[in-house]
Write a structure and sequence with these properties.
The chain is mainly α and 110 residues long. Helices cover 53% and strands 0% of the residues.
Amino acid sequence: MTAQVGDELWDEFHRAVNMTSRELQEWLSVEAAGENSEEVPDRAGRPLGRQVLEILGKRRTDLTDDDAAAMRRVVEIIRTQRPAGTDVTAGGTDWRHGLMDIGHDPLKPA
């Protein structure tokens, strides 16, 4: 079932998620790679990050209710973790990597 994603959510999501689908895919693959992990590339990363990647590859008319819920969740997480005016290095490496897991790189220029 497709969801009706309004202009506000669509725009907020695409402002908050500042990584391209390629950048996010590469990040999820690198982040999931470790000494004890052998992730399949299309399953690399956390579930929400993979869902963001899927959303980035969809047309707006193809989004589901689950996609819309994930979009709202991502916008809220980014808004909470990085309030307007927050220094790009405010939270350190773990903070940055956590945001990058869902498609937002605080060090990426606007």
